[in-house]
Every structure is written in structure tokens, then in C-alpha cells.
């Protein structure tokens, strides 16, 4: 087993332990007014141990509550920008993101989304799932949620 695989195995075991032993007093709710305000009964982010679960970001422009202009590309850029803002609010960066789920209403625009994502993330990239969605909140074209792991 390589050293990287051993480190990964240890981190997985620590994460499983953190989640298995977490209580509501271990939960820290993340909120920032620099990202879009939640539209419903959910938190922008929840921290448990060294893991942070970020609610799906959408292409809403913080402060105005308007949907980003620029069609699909503009919406994807705004959504990744909002995700970056949330990572910063958690004391991290997009480099701390280990998993993202991207929901897009037009799966034929996958390559465009992939190209824009590369503007925000560097290698090693997080794990990613891309889902073709029939419809998203406020008739937007993209939503992205993420899981972060903080160091230390």
C-alpha cells in the first residue's frame, strides 16, 4: 500500500468515527451574508468534526437575490463563485473540497460546465457526480453542493 493510500485510509477511518460519534452539540451551523440567503428550511453549511457539508449553491447573486446573467455559462460561474465564497466562510478554500455534486438542466452542456469548473479547481480535483435535472429552484440551470474536509 502506498503512503498516500495509507493516509487516505486513516482519514476515512477518522471521518467515519467523527460521523458515528457526532451529537447535535457537535454540529456547527455555517452562515455568511456574502452568499445567497437560503430559500427554505436548510442551513448554508453544517460542520461535523472536520467535515463540512455545503448546501447546494445556485446562480443567485448575493445581495440582490437576482439570477446571474450570461446564460448557462454565467450561471455556472456565479454558482462556483458562490461555492468559493462558502468555502471561505468555513475557513477554507476550494482546495478543501473533496466531493461535489453538480445538477444541470441540460446535460448536453456538460463539457461547458467541466471547462468552467477547471477555472475554479486545480488538481487533484475533488470527486464529482453530475446529474441531469429536469428542473431546479427558480428555474435556474445549475446547482452545486459540496463536502469539505478541513485540515488539522
Give start-end ranges of low-pLDDT stretches: none
Number of strands: 8
Q: Could you give me the name of the CATH homologous superfamily?
A: RutC-like
What is the CATH architecture annotation? 2-Layer Sandwich
Q: Please give the count of helices.
A: 3
Number of domains: 1
- Determine the N-to-C terminus distance: 24 Å
User: What top-tier CATH class fits best?
Assistant: Alpha Beta
Helicity range: 25-40%
Shape: globular
Under CATH, the topology is which? 60s Ribosomal Protein L30, Chain: A
Describe the structure.
This protein has 152 residues and is an alpha+beta fold. The chain has a single domain (26-149), classed as RutC-like (60s Ribosomal Protein L30, Chain: A, 2-Layer Sandwich). 32% of the residues lie in helices and 27% in strands. It has helices spanning 3-21, 71-89, 110-120, and strands at residues 27-30, 45-48, 51-57, 60-61, 66-67, 97-104, 127-132, 142-149. It has a six-stranded mixed beta sheet. A hairpin with a 2-residue loop joins β2 and β3. α2 (71-89) runs parallel beside α3. The longest helix is centred in the first third of the chain and has 19 residues, at 3-21. The protein is globular. 22% of the residues are buried. The model has no long low-confidence stretch (mean pLDDT 88).
Amino acid at each position: 500500500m502506498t503512503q498516500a493510500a495509507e493516509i487516505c485510509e486513516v482519514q476515512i477511518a477518522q471521518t467515519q468515527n467523527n460521523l458515528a460519534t457526532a451529537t447535535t452539540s457537535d454540529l456547527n451551523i455555517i452562515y455568511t451574508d456574502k452568499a445567497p440567503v437560503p430559500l427554505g428550511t436548510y442551513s448554508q453549511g453544517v460542520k461535523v468534526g472536520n467535515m463540512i457539508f455545503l448546501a447546494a449553491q445556485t446562480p443567485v447573486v448575493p445581495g440582490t437575490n437576482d439570477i446571474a446573467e450570461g446564460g448557462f455559462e454565467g450561471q455556472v460561474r456565479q454558482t462556483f463563485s458562490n461555492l468559493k465564497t462558502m468555502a471561505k466562510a468555513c475557513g477554507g478554500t476550494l482546495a478543501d473540497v473533496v466531493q461535489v455534486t453538480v445538477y444541470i438542466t441540460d446535460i448536453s452542456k456538460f463539457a461547458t460546465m467541466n471547462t468552467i469548473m477547471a477555472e475554479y479547481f486545480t488538481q487533484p480535483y475533488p470527486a464529482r457526480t453530475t446529474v441531469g435535472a429536469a428542473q431546479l429552484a427558480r428555474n435556474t440551470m445549475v446547482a452545486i453542493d459540496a463536502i469539505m474536509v478541513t485540515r488539522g
